[in-house]
Amino acid sequence: MATDGPLFDRKYYYEDATEISAREKAIDEWLPITASRTAKWWHSAFHNVTAVVGAGVLGLPYAMSELGWGPGLTILVISWIVTLYSLWQMVEMHEIVPGKRFDRYHELGQHAFGPKLGLWIVVPQQLIVEVGVDIVYMITGGQSLKKFHQSVCQDCSDIKLTYFIMIFASVHFLLSPLPSFNSMSVLSLVAATMSLSYSAIACYASISRGVQPDVEYDYRSNTAAGTTFNLFSGLGTVVFAYGGHNIVMEVQATMPSTDQKPSKKPMWKGVVAAYIIIALCYLPVAIIGYWIFGNDVKENILLTLQHPKWLIAMANMFVVFHLIGSYQIYAIPVFDMMESVLVKKMKLNPSWFLRMVTRNTYVAFTMFVAITFPFFDGLLSFFGGFGFAPTTYFLPCILWLAICKPRRFSSSWFANWFCIIFGVTMMTLGPIGGLRQIITHAKNYKFYE
Fold first, then answer.
1. What's the pLDDT at 363?
2. pLDDT by residue (tens digit) across 190-240?
C-alpha cells in the first residue's frame, strides 16, 4: 500500500493498523495457547508427565511380550534417549529467532519449510496424534471405569463398555471450556501424581502375585508371520508410550520470557524432571509386568491383575483421574487450532458460546469413535507408529537440520540422522502390526455391545 500522495491519509492508516493490532492482541489473549504466560518450571514438569505417561505405560508389559526381553528393553531405553534429545531440540528452537516465539508446533514448521508447506507437514501429523490419543484415552478411561465397577461390585449385573465410555466423556463436556493450559494446572498436577501412583500399584500388585506357574517368555505366536506382526505392534506401542512432543511448544508458550531469562531454561528444567519420572514409571512397570506374567499378560496390565481387589480398584480410578487430565492436555492444542480458524479466518466473534460449541463437538466426536472402535492394543500401536513417530522421534531432528544447519558429519549431524532413521523405521513398522490387530479384533466384534 502506498504511503504518500494525495489519496493517502496517514491518520486513518495508523488508526486502522492500531485497530487490527488491538484485535489480534485480543484474539491471542482469548486463544488457549497464548492466553496466559505465567507458568513456572514445575508446570512444565507435570504437564509433560501428564502428556507422556498415560495409556501407553499400561501397555508396555504387553509390548514386552511381543518384543521379547532383549529387543524390548533395547527399544525402551533407546526411545527414552532419542525422545529426550528431540525434546531438547524443540525447547531450544522455541526462541531460536531473536525477538520471536514459536508458540505452536506448526509455527516452527512454517519457519523451517515455508508458510504453506510447513503448515501441511506439521498440522495433519499433529492432529492425527492429538485426536488419536484422545480417542484411545476415551477407550482406556471407559475400560478402567468398568474394571473399577467390577472390582467393587462383583454381584452387580454387567454393564456395556459403551456406557462407561459415555460416563468418562461426560466429565470432559464439563472441563472442555477451561480457557488455557494454566487454568488446568491443578488438574494436570493431580493427573501427574496419579500416573506415579497407579504405576507403583501395578508394580506392587504384580510382585505380590509372584512369578506365575508355567510362565513363558517365548514369542506369543507360533508362526513366523504372527511373530513378525507382533514385533511390529510392540514397536508401535512403545512409540505411543513416549509421545508427548506434540504439546511441547504450546506448553513452553505459557512461560514468561525475556532476553535475560529465556523460557527455555525453566522449560528444560521441567522436562528433565518429567523424564526422570517417566523412567521411574516405564521401566519398572514394563519389566516387572512381563517378568511376573510373561505371555499371559493382557494388553492393559491392570486388566491382568485381580488381587488385592481394593488396590486394583483404586489403581483403575487413579488411571481415570490421570486420563481426565491427559485428555485435556492433548485437546487444548486442537481447541486452539479450531478456534484460530473460526476467529481469524472466518472472522467469528470470540465468545464463550463459540468455545462451548466447538469443544463439546470435539468431545462428542472422540466419544463416538471410541465407542465404535474400542480396540485398545491395536489403536495404541497404529496411532503410535503412524502419528507419534514423526512428531516425536524425527520431525524435531529434521527441523533442527533445516534451521540450525549443523556441520556435515559433526556429532550433531550424526545424532540427528540416527534419530531420523530410527524414527522412520518405527513409523513404518508400528502401524502394520496395529492395523493387523484391529482387523483381527474386528472379525468377531459387534458394534455398540
1. 92
2. 888 888 888 888 888 888 877 777 777 777 767 777 778 778 778 877 887
Task: Give the C-alpha distances (Å, rounded to integers) separating 82 from 92, 172, 394.
Answer: 16, 33, 9
CA 151 to chain centroid: 29
Angle between helices 161-175 and 115-152 (to 10 degrees): 120
| pLDDT score, position 293 | 84
Please state whether 445 falls in left (phi above 0), alpha (psi between -120 and 50) or beta.
beta
Least Cα distance to 391 among 239, 194, 224 occurs for 239
10 Å CB burial of residue 33 (0-12, 13-18, 19+) is buried
Output the CA torsion sign for 305, 309, 312, 313. Answer: positive
pLDDT of residue 436: 66
CB 89 within 8 A of CB 269: no
Using H for helix, E for strand and C for coil, what is the string for the chain?
CCCCCCCCCHHHHHHHHHHHHHHHHHHHHHCCCCCCCCCCHHHHHHHHHHHHCCHHHHHHHHHHHHHCHHHHHHHHHHHHHHHHHHHHHHHHHCCCCCCCCCCCHHHHHHHHHCHHHHHHHHHHHHHHHHHHHHHHHHHHHHHHHHHHHHHHCCCCCCCCHHHHHHHHHHHHHHHCCCCCCHHHHHHHHHHHHHHHHHHHHHHHHHHHHCCCCCCCCCCCCCCHHHHHHHHHHHHHHHHHHHCCHHHHHHHHCCCCCCCCCCCHHHHHHHHHHHHHHHHHHHHHHHHHHHHHHHHHCCCCHHHHCCCCHHHHHHHHHHHHHHHHHHHHHHHHHHHHHHHHHHHHHCCCCCCHHHHHHHHHHHHHHHHHHHHHCCCHHHHHHHHHHHHHHHHHHHHHHHHHHHHHCCCCCCHHHHHHHHHHHHHHHHHHHHHHHHHHHHHHHHCCCCCCC
pLDDT of res. 330: 86
Of the chain, the end-to-end C-alpha distance in Å amounts to: 63
Positions in the chain short of pLDDT 70? 1-23, 54-55, 221, 306-308, 375-387, 433-449
